[in-house]
Amino acid sequence: MTQKSDPKFEALLRLGDNALILGHRVSEWCGHAPVLEEDIALANTALDLLGQTSLWLEYAGEVEGKGRSADDIAFLRDAWDFRNVLLVELPNGDFGQTIMRQYLFDVFNRLNLEAMKTSTDTRIAEIAEKAAKEAAYHVERSEGTVIGLGDGTEESHRRIQDALNILWPYAQELFITDEVDEEMAKAGVIPDPKSLQDAWNAEVRGALAEATLEVPEAHFGHRGSGKDGRMHTEHLGHILTQMQWLQRAYPGQEW
Amino acid sequence: MTQKSDPKFEALLRLGDNALILGHRVSEWCGHAPVLEEDIALANTALDLLGQTSLWLEYAGEVEGKGRSADDIAFLRDAWDFRNVLLVELPNGDFGQTIMRQYLFDVFNRLNLEAMKTSTDTRIAEIAEKAAKEAAYHVERSEGTVIGLGDGTEESHRRIQDALNILWPYAQELFITDEVDEEMAKAGVIPDPKSLQDAWNAEVRGALAEATLEVPEAHFGHRGSGKDGRMHTEHLGHILTQMQWLQRAYPGQEW
Amino acid sequence: EPEERHFQEKVDADIRIEPRDWMPEGYKKTLIRQIGQHAHSEIVGQLPEGNWITRAPTLERKMILLAKVQDEAGHGLYLYCAAETLGISRDEMTEMLLSGKMKYSSIFNYPTLTWADIGAVGWLVDGAAIMNQVPLQRTSYGPYSRAMIRICKEESFHQRQGYDIMMKMAKGSEAQKRMAQDALNRFWYPSLMMFGPSDANSVHSEQSMAWKIKINTNDELRQKFVDQTVPQAEYLGLTIPDETLKWNEEKGGYDFAEPDWDEFFDVLKGAGPVNNDRLEARRKAWDDGAWVREGLLAHAEKKRASKVAAE
Amino acid sequence: EPEERHFQEKVDADIRIEPRDWMPEGYKKTLIRQIGQHAHSEIVGQLPEGNWITRAPTLERKMILLAKVQDEAGHGLYLYCAAETLGISRDEMTEMLLSGKMKYSSIFNYPTLTWADIGAVGWLVDGAAIMNQVPLQRTSYGPYSRAMIRICKEESFHQRQGYDIMMKMAKGSEAQKRMAQDALNRFWYPSLMMFGPSDANSVHSEQSMAWKIKINTNDELRQKFVDQTVPQAEYLGLTIPDETLKWNEEKGGYDFAEPDWDEFFDVLKGAGPVNNDRLEARRKAWDDGAWVREGLLAHAEKKRASKVAAE
Predict the structure, then answer these.
(1) InterPro entries this protein is in (chains A, B) (predicted)?
(2) Which of C159, C242, D167, D187 qualifies as a FRET site for B226, CA 20 to 30 Å off?
């Protein structure tokens, strides 16, 4: 229904948009975290994700070949052209929901980046090399916090369990595989998400068990996905009104 | 510091922007009110306020004489050019804060519109004639609800008292008088806000007493005001990102 | 039994059943489920459209949309009142919605992502709703029938407004056209789902039709909707996202592809994550509003008591 | 007393006072107030800039701003640590901030309304802050002095970034220029207020200077700030909103108008309604975060206990 575009371009958008939108969400915490050390750590995560965004979207623009910069791609598309999964669009909720979302994504991101280090596309391999280190650090932090809150007080346990219940079905979207994924996997550029699912499940379920949390029975019910733009939550549009405000209100300026 | 513009244009912006921004805030409740009847009533208030916005801003555009429509004025100015008081920009808070804000504004609006019915500017007199009826109805509703919540349960009393404490200093801004007000009052176009203050105080303090609420000691501390654009809260800019999104993202289209 | 026979005779003769009349328990139960679900759909249905009120592109569009969502709240009120004549309270029904015991139309588990979606919702979703509702004006239960008559009057107005938005978009700039087509792509199949599964797979249908709680079959209405909508899409210059769509001279209607019923049942059961947002929004409104309802009630009690004391 | 004399001799000889050294109660109290207020200012100061992180116009600007606000949180940490060496905990100081017993710089009760304000905050507010802080690197209390040395290194970097934003705006489109001028108009006088009231009206000043907690007078620093900033504004092509501003050959500095000190005291006392937003934001962060702090603490306790048991 939408015009077919280069699968590598699509795949790079998915990587870039996940980082962009999650980075945006995390940056919303700035100045509002439960404790100063968390404020600093969350800002750090957001910074890493925005750095990854730049690298992915810059390369996406080059692959597309229409002269669009990373900023053009980030700030001048409407909701339908975004390719991130729904998980990263969700509102921050309480700190438990933020950190659980972060953890579920971080593990996926690290596994994905680790595998991309041997990509047949050397540019992707280079970016993955750098980003995988950051992602490993993110997992370390978010996993520790999830375990701490799960195995903390009664209230912290209840809250982080609630967060898991809400987020678990969204996390399943990370492993939906479509033609773009298949083509990229076949060419050895980016792994098929399904190929990461077992490792993800093993690691995540292990940590959640340590956190004394129960994994809910729930799956992603919609057929369309944020990955192909056929589905998003209503939250994405609201993110864009903020994120793109200046570029939209004052088009074509230098900042 | 900003270029002087026609005082009647400025005065009309103040009227229009108060209605526009408050209408926007109230419309945010749509689908989220504590009870269905309130959902309908709030939507009604928002509709009236947006209707008043159209009339004021359309006339403002004519007075300015640069061919700007009400929509151009509403959707294509940045924060600094808005002339509403800070009170109407504030987030909705809980329902108590919303209804208290509404009440404090409604009484001012009704008094102001009543006085404008005899404006020397017949267009303003006509708009005021229509809008005053709506405002009278708004006061009736918001006053009744404030009294009901103040003289309701312990919790409802506490919450509406908290709302009053937060909002009272902001309400004082309604009565700041500057050169624009003085000029408009001298020409018999729009009353000096100060001239409405005694009536407002008598009425509002009466109702708050009936609501068993205590009026706090607090004043508006800043010298700049939303009325002259030298002051706004940070909330205004966020309202604009939403409100103006489509007009900014797709400039010059028909909708 | 004579009561049951008498009841059915009245229904067959198109005489309205009123709250005080005798009625079978199953009739009452089915009506509560159906009217309640319809009422909940109006209430939850405020959310996807309400989502764009603060972003409507002009003052006029903002007012039209706000008025429309306000109408939906009003429809919810009519319908809750109709259901209340059957001996269940609005609060009880609300609790059942929030606990997941009662459903709402699963169309509202699809998000409105662009302004064109507001057009598509009016055109397609209200269009499908009207198709369902018009026959229900002749339903056997009096209060329900009267509520539907009031509702239908307003709904057709809403559909025209939705189509008008689509028209502006489809005849607008390239970007607007693309937005309109994208909205149609996303809302087409969910709209077809609104008529429910094929009659072959639909429970309750036969009895409901005998009771005149249901007037047409799901497939009849769906066909009628497609036949009405295809030429409208053509007029707009938009493409229905169904490559198999074709006029069938013989049946005098279009052949078209079925929606993905697995998704339908998934989403209906709440497996689709979007329904979480909807129920959370309604739960939050209900929970956060408790102190307001209690406060106003307490005040009314006090006033009543002091009035009694003064008499 | 000999202790007091010995203490003052060390101060006079520029020997740092360390936490274990004897110090007068007043010295300690004044330091806690001053360092605490400075720490709180870093924390509250995250808010006006944080307000624009989600709206920064490019990815690079977003990262720079985020890193800057992160630095401020870091400065807050250094300063709380310095204050803690005086026997007060971070939590105690936080509670005092939230209850209004301790202040923060009233500059942060002015809102950031446009992107140019982010430039103005960096250029003017950080500029004024550095002017205050550079001499404090030589303050008599060791931990405070060392914190200031680290902070100053980063602050001057921040000021350059702010000036860079202003430059882009002032040399940009008409709208951007207007935005930049508007930001300067709104932030000029509040920046002048940052040095505190004129020395004639300033309490504590003399003793603090003897203790080398304060190095320069408020008026000295304000003059220095104006003299530095005016040519920068000229270079940007922006106009300082002070018609009385004039070079005074004789004193070798500018004559300039005083800010409205009534507003200063009003805003400082919290009469200005904007400070409500700031304290509410901090209160909400603190209250909403209680369960997180408690949860992580409880987990750490459990781990410690099981480790001890295993030993």
Answers:
(1) Aromatic_CoA_ox/epox, Ferritin-like, Ferritin-like_SF, PaaA_PaaC, PaaC
(2) D167
